[in-house]
Structure formats: C-alpha cells, structure tokens
Design goal:
It is built from eight helices and no strands. The protein has helices at 4-8, 11-16, 21-29, 38-43, 48-51, 56-61, 66-80, 90-93.
Amino acid sequence: MPNALPQACSEEGRALLAWDTEQVAEFVRSLPACREYAEVFLAENIDGGVLALLTDQHLLALGLKLGPALRLRAALAARLGNCPHCRHCKHCHSQGD
C-alpha cells in the first residue's frame, strides 16, 4: 500500500508543507486573533514544514497568548486534515526519497 501515506493528508495540507515564511506569515495574519504575531513567524524563519510541527508549547514560547495559540492550531488542523501516520513532516511526504 505505497500510496496510502500521501493520500492520508489533504491536498491542502500537502501544499501547506511547501509554504515559505511569507506564506506562513500571511496565514497567521489572516486569523484575526493571531494577526499581531505574524512578524514573530517571519523573525523565527518558520516555513510550512515547521509550522505543521509546532505544538501549543512552541507557540506559547514564541510569545503567543493561549487563546491565539489554540485558534492558530485549530485553523492549522483544519487545513492539514487528518493524517494518522505522522505529524505532517516533510520527510513523510517527499517523493522518491
């Protein structure tokens, strides 16, 4: 079943993994509760692959308040879909490795 893993993630989730830091910042800006934190994501050089790995604790360490951190994680989960095989890291979804 070699194709099961890539199909477990949404198409939108796979595209998110390829986002650059500016695309991540735009996503953060698009969330009203998180808008003020967009520059933090740029300063920390967080791209889509890293964004998908961030936990609540990481977000709090970046300076987000708990409410915005949870809202960001909820919005991110909605985009990533449900992948039971991994935490959406690039090495799980790369082709030909």
